[in-house]
Amino acid sequence: MDSSCRGTALPFRFHSFVSLFQVLLIIQAAVAQTSNDELRQRHAEGYCAMYDICGARSDGKVVNCASGSPAVKPDELLSSKIQSLCPTITGNVCCTEAQFDTLRSQVQQAIPFLVGCPACLRNFLNLFCELSCSPNQSLFINVTSVSQVQNNMTVDGIDFYVTDDFGEGLYESCKDVKFGTMNTRALEFIGAGAQNFEGWFAFIGRQAPNNMPGSPYAIRFLPTVPESSGMRPMNVSTYSCGDVSLGCSCGDCPSSPVCSNTAISTSNNGAKCSVRIGSLKTRKRSRSFRMNPFLDTADGGQSHSLNRQKAENLPMQRLEDANQSSTVVRLSVVQEYMSNFYRKYGLWVARHPTLVLSLSVGMVLLLCSGLVRFKVETRPEKLWVGPGSKAAEEKRFFDSNLAPFYRIEQLILATIPNPLDGKSPSIVTEENIKLLFEIQEKIDGIRGNYSGSMISLTDICMKPMGEDCATQSVIQYFKMDPSYDADNRLEQVNYCFQHYTSAESCMSAFKAPVDPSTVLGGFSGSNYTEASAFIVTYPVNNALDKEGNETQKAVAWEKAFVQLAKDELLPMVQSKNLTFSFSSESSIEEELKRESTADAITILISYLVMFAYISVALGDTPRLSSFYISSKVLLGLSGVVLVMLSVLGSVGFFSAVGVKSTLIIMEVIPFLVLAVGVDNMCILVHAVKRQPLDLPLEGRISNALVEVGPSITLASLSEVFVFAVGSFIPMPACRVFSMFAALAVLFDFLLQVTAFVSLIVFDFLRAEDGRVDCFPCIKASSAYAESEKGIGGRKPGLLARYMKEVHAPILGLWGVKILVVSTFVAFSLASIALSTRIEPGLEQKIVLPKDSYLQGYFNNVSKYLRIGPPVYFVVKNYNYSSESIDTNKLCSISQCNSDSLLNEISRASLTPESSYIAKPAASWLDDFLVWLSPEAFGCCRKFTNGSYCPPDDQPPCCSANDSTCGLSEVCKDCTTCFLHSDLHNDRPSTAQFREKLPWFLDALPSADCSKAGHGAYTSSVELQGYENGIIKASSFRTYHTPLNKQIDYVNSMRAARQFASRVSDSLKMEIFPYSVFYMFFEQYLDIWKTALINLAMAIAIIMLVLAMILVDLMGVMAILGIQLNAVSVVNLVMSVGIAVEFCVHITHAFSVSSGNRDERVKEALGTMGASVFSGITLTKLVGVLVLRFSKTEVFVVYYFQMYLALVLLGFLHGLVFLPVVLSMFGPPSRCIQVEKQGERPPVSSQP
Prior knowledge:
By secondary structure, the chain is an alpha+beta fold. The strands form nine sheets. The protein has a four-stranded mixed beta sheet with strand order 1-4-5-8. A four-stranded antiparallel beta sheet has the order 13-14-10-15, sandwiched between helices. A three-stranded antiparallel beta sheet has the order 22-18-23. Strand 2 (50-56) and strand 3 form a beta hairpin. It is found in: Endomembrane system. Belongs to the patched family. The chain crosses the membrane at residues 355-374, 600-618, 633-656, 668-688, 736-762, 811-834, 1092-1120, 1132-1152, 1164-1186, 1198-1222. Pfam families: NPC1_MLD (PF22314), NPC1_N (PF16414), Sterol-sensing (PF12349). Keywords: Cholesterol metabolism, Disulfide bond, Glycoprotein, Lipid metabolism, Lipid transport, Membrane, Signal, Steroid metabolism, Sterol metabolism, Transmembrane, Transmembrane helix, Transport.
């Protein structure tokens, strides 16, 4: 989008401006020409070449008389007038009062463009003053051809001799002067973008046909005069833009010595070297940008799913015989307390299973009652931006004091690349322009239904001038009218690509220039005819109240817009062999809602796979004769129900206290908690099954809880802890997710040790009574119970034997140990290096369904757009009173500080690769000061009664129906608002500023005064309360360079904030940058800090192996290209808790085993290796693998890839690297030999 989309409506007739400057000595059109000999010119001092006005051409342009008469002494009044505009003209003159009035009325149109640089303006005026009124005019002007009009000889062509020194001085003083409203050079408007003074003179001197803008006669600028002619070139002294007496701003004159003393600031202070964990600091200009608050980014439907690991603890050594020596384990105080608690608790639960089950389930159901207040948060700004966010506060300030950023509806049409060379043909053809008109006709016909009212585009679109929509499209060069120049469309657009700023015929329907770079894509430099894409943008009014009528009307129209694009526009465009993509402001949110159901089947299958695994894992080895009794399907199903209750209890609790849920919670947390619950269920059931059947069931339950209860408790609490750490993340979606997940895991643990233990009691009673699983009312034979009497002496399984007899011995070899340690250390070091390549951000395409129409749109945005997002530098509490110096701290025209805000922005735009600022800023303050300047004759004017008088080309001075406007009776007595004597150093007083600012903001721009502020700056100044001398909020608009990758958005925001902070400190004013995407990308400024703080808190209690798993996981992220964002940070934090499971059980088994280190490793792998592999690795693996088939890439990238890497890394570190490290550096055993004197107790007292 260009500045016009932000309310800039400047109906400049730029080409005609310059043409009028060329018509300063004018004569009536005639039919006959005479030769130069017939002119009888006299080239001598004190003689004129042209004098007086002899009439007007048929198109109304007045023309001068060809006359070689002597210069005339003017009367005192005329002399005073001439001196005020042309101080180099003294004594006699070669212009009448009518000629001078014509000169003054025309140059006043150029003054607003150049007044910011007095040296340029003075040189520019001198050129036309010498041409029009110099008493020695004949010395440097030679009339080469004449025409006869009404018997008068009128000028038809002249040679104007001007030295190269003057031409070069004029051009050098003006070449960098900016026209603030359009963020571009003034020469683009009054010189057709000339690159040297020859080009500028050639533009000025072109003769125009009737009724066309341009000069009525040809002016040939020549540097040398003919020999023996008696002439000499005009060579009035020029002023340098660096001249102190006529000083220009730094933005208009970078070569000024005042400006050269101010060093260009960079984002780094000094030349110090810094190392930052994050993306590598590379410089790359991105090529495209989509200006949409969705942004880039910021999406409300991210998902967080994590598989948690649990495993069985080492079975404690049971006492053998009273008279035999045995090994026992020294217990810590905590472990001994927990063992005693679980011993008593297990006995009580086994004796009262119904009571425990009823109480535990009843409590959870009570918490679920909070679901009556259940609400889901879907607004992206509420999901991804914290309430204390600096960017959010700045956005609220901007929206409430200036204006909310507009909504964007956009279409992109592009040609298909040639399959042979891969190049895309140009889209600028007659047929494709006709297609744009057909599309526009359908867009105009859209009607959205809002509460029975039919909403059209004209009802909601942004109208800078209050009439026409500010649509950005190539067909604006035809005023959006299909009949406009219909026979020559291709020639018209090609002409407008080069003259969009100067030709009135190229002005848009909303009376503003349309920059080709905003409506075309796929071109390089300014080769617009090579463009391979049309970009059509519809800015729509936005509102602060997202639920209000205005917003809902826009949403209703946007739904109809998207439907039309899918049903009609897409096939229409594709039939022309073009590609088509589209988006509306509400598209992101609507597609994210659809995403929530897109993977329902995938998630359901994942749940079913895990449920099937539970049923198999909890039961015994399948035997056809007793499978229907030994299976644990009903127990597994009951366990799944408990997991769901824990999730519902968590959601119910937070709903009751007013915390809104998210779609992520409902999709991911059940999967996460189910994965965690599976481990606990397996551990508890297997622990009970390991107990000897000769013990009563209550003894087996008690022993099992003593054996695994402490480890389950500590592991679950560690997982609750790492989830709770995630609640410190400021992003609401991730914080809420972590809170819900932490409470759900806690409830799941409590239900596992209460309700599920009760269910185990019921299930074992069922099996021992020979009742069929799932149908406990049916009783089978008692053969099963009899066959299981010897369960305590069962042989180890195949996996356990492999771990003890194959895996452990191989790892015990010293060569293998050295190889394992070297490999894992090398991979960890490589991962540390790779982790610096992780880029912050979350690609928009990843969070959307793969079949979303926005996928193609984002690809085209990245490929074709050539404009960056607007950025506003907002100034708070600007003191405009005459006693304050704030004005000079901000402005960039004459007498402003060299280090002012606008001058600093201009300097920053010279280094866009580091500042990410593409252009100098459009300044309402500069334009306002110029607007009320006495030199701007046609701008700030007043009637005799003191009220505002508009320019002569606006009503009531000029009727809207008049084709030409002159001095009218209505406005003939209008005078400028101020004389120079009324101002102090060209600055208004406090009262003058206060009175005229509303005039400026209400004034319509036109040819006679292009600096008027309506449209361009309507929403740039907050007038509420400004009467006290303080403007609460005002903004200065510029643009970022094109941003494509996520890292570009982050770096541009960082650079803008650093720039604003430095300037604020320097000027002692409060200034901040604002762009629509800042709110969503602020999280990434400190994402590394957030990640490291949270990870440091989570790993404070762990050592080498867990840190290596974490570092290696980050290395894998870099290899897979996974970005660092809130989703991956939460995953990394939770991976610490999961990594604990892979290490703690092997380490614990090693610590309670006896023998040397190698023997203890072998024993630990033999007893716990199989449990870690089957109970933890496989549990997570079966659930994670299903996510590979998700339709949403965010599941594939952040859950399948990341979790699969975590499971595999945890397995390798826990079962390969950790055993090797323990065999080499492991701690001594905690086992001691004791002599037992008593009988073996019926229930083990050892943990």
